[in-house]
Design goal:
alpha/beta, 15 helices
Length: about 425
């Protein structure tokens, strides 16, 4: 995009907002202020139970994943942090990984534990659960793993642990529904006690998969129960794909905000379940409504710092391009939410004017904020069109040659 064209589009945006208390600069500022962590595991091609179709130049180790993360941040100015998943990206030398990140201008966000797969060489299996397992030896192994993840995260400068549990049952009678929850809470208490000063713990819910009859932490209510029982430094993480079809996710956000327990988000999109699709590709209006609730919370509370991370599986798209696309959609949602005339909306709500209240939200949602987002990226040293800039850079072809000698090891192989 030529500077003159961008200036024209920004002027058009200001003209569009001429009767609003908001301006194009409000959209630019909101897009510029938004940052999100890139998950280390998302830089390789994902897969399904039916197969994986690898792409060229996939990173062979976590160091090369950081190189790819740096490309995304350079083009967007919005992804300065990386979220590490252990054992998928277990660093042999945490200090060397930290040095690499500093060299690239990156830092580390929340670290993620994994007790939903059996790690090679583990003494116990998680086939029948981890924290909820009736075998105390299995539970202790899961607790020890989480404490190890905290230790690695502390060495990398992280300050939060994310715990998602696959624990549950596939058949009635397979497990005691109340005892399973009590074991999970007891195990989490042990992990919570191991948090360093200043650290937070996030509990993440999911209604089903791989447990199809009952899941221990199946919804936001159970996640909230755990967080409230653990203490002030525990809160809930919302994954946009971890809800049953037609769930009002923005209402879940509002409830957790009211409880003071909204810890953060995993951004993606879904049509049927935990599809891990590119954010904004299926339900862009829902994404906007979620950001509207977050914007309201930020305006109401002085110290509101949720942890934001992308959580997607790139089975068909180039992983870097898909992540760039998601960052763009998230920046647009943040910019549109900043354009909501909140005073007018509150007035219509209090007056019971249903149509005008909805129209106030739609006015912001239907505003083309792409020029404002492009301007925010340019001011951050990024690209107006990150995907176009990435394709023009030749980065993928270059790393495809450099990495041809190695082979990407996908998480599914662990």
């Amino acid at each position: 995009m030529e500077p003159a064209d961008l200036r024209r589009d920004l002027d058009a945006l200001d003209h569009r907002l001429r009767d609003s208390p908001k301006s194009g600069q409000d959209a630019v500022a909101a897009a510029a202020a938004f940052t999100v962590a890139v998950p280390s595991w998302a830089l390789g091609t994902g897969g399904t139970r039916f197969g994986r179709f690898p792409g060229p130049g996939e990173p062979r180790d976590v160091f090369e994943k950081l190189d790819d993360c740096a490309q995304i941040h350079a083009l967007t100015g919005a992804t300065p942090t990386v979220s590490l998943h252990l054992p998928w990206d277990e660093p042999d030398d945490p200090q060397a990984l930290l040095d690499k990140a500093k060299e690239l201008g990156l830092t580390f966000d929340a670290v993620n534990s994994n007790t939903f797969q059996d790690a090679p060489g583990a003494a116990h299996s998680y086939k029948l659960g981890s924290f909820s397992n009736p075998d105390p030896g299995v539970r202790q192994q899961a607790v020890d793993h989480n404490l190890h993840v905290i230790e690695v995260g502390e060495a990398l400068g992280s300050d939060a642990l994310t715990v998602w549990l696959a624990d549950g049952t596939n058949y009635p009678g397979q497990g005691n529904l109340r005892r399973g929850y009590e074991r999970v809470l007891d195990s989490l208490h042990q992990v919570y006690a191991g948090l360093p000063d200043g650290w937070r713990l996030f509990t993440e819910h999911k209604p089903y998969e791989p447990a199809f009859y009952s899941t221990v932490v199946q919804d936001w209510g159970t996640s909230l129960m755990l967080a409230q029982a653990l203490g002030d430094r525990a809160s809930c993480l919302v994954d946009l794909g971890h809800h049953l079809p037609n769930t009002n996710v923005e209402l879940v956000v509002a409830r957790l905000l009211s409880a003071g327990k909204l810890g953060g988000f995993h951004f993606n999109d879904s049509k049927y379940g935990d599809d891990d699709l590119t954010a904004g590709s299926i339900k862009p209006y829902q994404l906007f409504l979620v950001f509207h609730e977050l914007t309201l919370a930020a305006a109401d509370e002085g110290d509101f710092r949720p942890a934001y991370m992308i959580d997607q599986s790139h089975n068909l798209k180039d992983p870097i391009e898909a992540l760039l696309q998601t960052v763009d959609q998230l920046q647009q949602a943040a910019a549109k939410a900043a354009l909501v005339d909140r005073d007018a909306l509150a007035g219509y709500q209090d007056a019971g004017d249903v149509l005008m209240a909805e129209r106030t939200l739609k006015d912001a949602y239907e505003t083309d904020v792409r020029p404002a987002v492009a301007q925010a990226r340019l001011e951050a040293g990024g690209a107006a069109d990150p995907v176009a800039a990435f394709r023009a850079s030749g980065y993928r072809a270059r790393v495809a040659d450099e990495r041809a000698a190695g082979a990407y090891v996908p998480p599914q192989s662990l």
